[in-house]
Structures are given as C-alpha cells and as structure tokens.
Amino acid sequence: MSFMSDVQIDSMEQGVTLSRELRIATYNVHGAVGIDGRLAPERIGAVLGEIDADIFALQEVPLGGSDAPNVLDILQRMTGLNAVEGPTLDTAARRYGNAVLTRFPVRAVRTLDLSFRSREPRGALDADIDCGGEVWRVVATHLGLASSERRAQVEQVLQSFDTPAMPVILLGDLNEWFVYGRTLRRLVTHFYRASAPRTFPTRYPLFALDRIWVHPGERLIRVDAHRSALARIASDHYPLIAHIAPSAANEASLSA
C-alpha cells in the first residue's frame, strides 16, 4: 500500500493509561451546510460537543482556500481537540476532504489517494493515535458512489490490514446502499460485522451509509446513531458512534 505522505506529529500532551471505554465517531458534515441550506459550522461544532467523542472522523469538510471557509479550523477552535486534515481536493481556490479531531496525541499521519478514474477525488486519512498508552490506527475515509469504484477503493485500503500490527478502526461514509453489497462483504473478511444504524438522510433515515469497523472485534461494545434535534438539521447525515472497551493490559495495570 503506497501512501502519499508519512508525517510524524509531535504533541505536548502526555499519554496516560486509559481505564474507560473509547468513544469514536464518524460524521459526514455535508460541507457544514444543513438541511435548511444554511452554511453553519457552529452547528456542526455544537453536535460534536453533544457527542463528546475521543476521536471524530469527519467527511466533506471545507479546509479553506481563497473561495472557501476553513471549517476544520472553526471546529478545532470550538472543541479544543487536535486536528488533522486529509484533503482530497487541494487547489488554491478550495481545499476539501477528510479530517480527524482527537483529544489524544497523534503519533503519525499517512494519506492514501483512492481516486478512481475520472470520478470525484477520494481518499483515506490514516493516523496512529495514542489513546492513553495504547496506539490505535484510525483510518477515516469517504468512498465513491459507484459500486465498481467502492470495490477498488476497499481493496486498496485492505492491502494494509492483512497483518495489523496494532488495533485498527476503519470508519467513514462508505456510500454502500445495499446490505449485501460487495463492499460490505469484502470488509467482513477482515473485520467482525458490526451493527449499522441508519444515518441517511436525517429527515427520514433509510440507509446505513456510515460505518465503523473495529479490529479486534471483541473490543467493540456497541454502535449508536446520534439522532439529536440539532444533528437532524446540521447535516444530511447523522453521526455514528462506536463504544470500545479498554484493553485488558490497561485494566490490569490499574488494578495492580
């Protein structure tokens, strides 16, 4: 698997042993434009505050440019979390794509170009995050609209998961409309099947487009959709939240 960059990130924050569950969320923010057609990054920030996750994977995030706001910068200031961007469109006029916000130190970042032929540019943001002494590999992505596109993109991502050296979370907007679609069947060969509440559209959720996959699967406690009144209007997707159990090693170190 060939990454476009491999950047080490320093952090002043010191890791501590984590004894509670991790809360990991994925959220397609729809460019911070709500279902009322209004650009309102502050509403997205308020939804993130409602969730209070340890790690957020965000899709469709405006990242600045001469003709576009930097929504990630606004969300980072509102939440006080560490921010990492993974643009899939990067021009002087407009930067746009995936992002991660986390309360934990980010140890390394890689980006993967998942663009398929002449279709809309896609990518994955792959970050090693030190979650209280245990490093998780968090891969945040937004797959394409065509089934052939998604199949190719999943194969690219899975190339690095054959022998995972650390626990892995793969999450994002997979754009898979069909419960038995090939994209989901292929992912089940590497991850335990997780519950997938319907998240799209917020007016009347019919489709489970947003997914969270965890390895090892026994660490996953449950997955919930965050269907607050504010989340219903802030984007056309509801956020999805996974609750992950602390490692046995962390629990043992605290009880010793």
UniProtKB/TrEMBL annotation:
GO BP: any one term: GPI anchor biosynthetic process
Keywords from the named record: Endonuclease, Hydrolase, Nuclease
GO molecular-function terms, A-Z: endonuclease activity
CC annotations in GO: membrane
InterPro entries: Endo/exonu/phosph_ase_sf, Endo/exonuclease/phosphatase, GPI-anchor_lipid_remodeler
Endonuclease/exonuclease/phosphatase domain sequence ranges: 25-237
Keyword Oxidoreductase (UniProt): no
Protein name, as recorded: Endonuclease
Taxonomic source organism: Caballeronia glathei
